[in-house]
Each structure stands twice: as structure tokens, then as C-alpha cells.
Specification:
- This is Protein ALP1-like.
- The protein is mostly helical and 197 residues long.
- It has a domain of 136 residues.
- The radius of gyration is 18 Å and the shape is globular.
Length: 197
């Protein structure tokens, strides 16, 4: 999945009160353009677990995978989703406000709180970075980082009502969900399948 822009990869967890979920459902999500297996896609997607609907914006794992490509996809999807959950756990450990119940908060306020905590966390990490910057430099020079150049993407917000209706319809299309998942399975198998034991 390294070729696919990681800024699009996020986890919504089990909370449908997520501002991201609301923005996507209302057609306010960023517009992105990317290719998987030479097929174009124009909708950001989020790694999700099985409780989410089969919408193109939610890439879920494959329940009881049978084929080797499906098993490898499930391993990558679940691993990436767990990394994101761990990152959220770091924020919860650092900021008490994130651990507290949020049902009574306004969605816009929750978004501001989360962004503020992420910014504060990044400021703290940057401040502490001097203590381990040499180890990171050594790691990057060894060529083990595995990072790839980020792919360009557009963040244009859909302005007109007609676009809103179209986006909402596309957002709920289970066929596009299955096409994207199948393309991701093929992509991961092509990229990483030959290195399996």
C-alpha cells in the first residue's frame, strides 16, 4: 500500500459521531485522484472494521479470507488499521479530553479538539526530537525506511447541491466499494505477494 497516498488512509473506529464520517456523508470530503491497478478513483477512503457499511469510502478487511491474495490483503489492511488505532491510543494517553465521553459535544467542537490535540502532540514530539534525531538519521540512511514519494492529490470541496447529491450517491455505491477492494487486493498481491514465505 506504500504507493497509495497515506494522507488518505485513516481509521474511523467504531464511532459514527466522527466529524470525518459526517463530512463524507454530506459530500464535504476532500476530492482525491488516484489509480489502483490502472483504474481511476476520485474519493478518499478510510480503513474501517466490519461494522461500517460497504461504501467506497470504507475499505474493510475480508472476513474469512480463503485465497492467498485475500489473506495478504486482510493482513495489510488490519495491520495498517491497528497502527492508526495505536496512534489514536497515544493521543488518548496524552490528552484526557480525548478519553472522555463525547456524545454531548457538538461535531464541529470535536473536530477542533482533535485537530488541536494532534497539533499539540506534534509540537511536543518535535520539541523532544533532538534527543533521538541521530538515530532517525542513521535509520533513513540505511535505506530501511520504505517510504515512497507522496502522490499529489486535490482537496477541492464540492460546492453545488447537484454535486452534493451525486457525491452522496457515489459515497453509498456498494459496487464501487467492491471494485476498490478487489483492486487493492490485486495491488497488494502484485507488490508484496512474491515475497511471502
Amino acid at each position: 500500500m506504500a504507493d497509495i497516498n497515506k494522507t488518505r488512509v485513516s481509521n474511523l473506529g467504531a464511532n459514527n459521531r466522527s466529524p470525518v464520517f459526517d463530512d463524507v456523508e454530506q459530500g464535504k470530503a476532500p476530492s482525491v485522484n488516484f489509480f489502483v491497478n490502472q483504474r481511476p478513483y476520485n474519493m478518499a477512503y478510510y480503513l474501517a472494521d466490519g461494522i461500517y457499511p460497504s461504501y467506497p469510502t470504507f475499505v474493510k478487511s475480508i472476513r474469512l479470507p480463503q485465497s492467498e491474495p485475500d489473506k495478504l490483503f486482510a493482513k495489510f489492511q488490519e495491520g495498517c488499521r491497528k497502527d492508526i488505532e495505536r496512534a489514536f491510543g497515544v493521543l488518548q494517553a496524552r490528552f484526557k479530553i480525548i478519553r472522555e465521553p463525547a456524545r454531548l459535544w457538538d461535531i464541529a467542537d470535536l473536530g477542533i479538539i482533535m485537530r488541536s490535540c494532534i497539533i499539540l502532540h506534534n509540537m511536543i514530539v518535535e520539541d523532544e526530537r533532538d534527543s533521538y534525531s541521530q538515530r532517525w538519521t542513521d535509520f533513513e540512511q540505511s535505506g530501511e525506511s520504505g517510504s515512497s514519494a507522496p502522490q499529489p492529490y486535490s482537496t477541492e470541496v464540492l460546492p453545488a447541491f447537484a454535486n452534493h447529491v451525486r457525491a452522496r450517491s457515489e459515497f453509498r455505491d456498494p459496487n464501487v466499494h467492491q471494485e476498490l477492494q478487489a483492486d487493492l487486493v490485486k495491488h497488494i498481491w502484485t507488490k508484496f505477494g512474491m515475497f511471502r514465505d
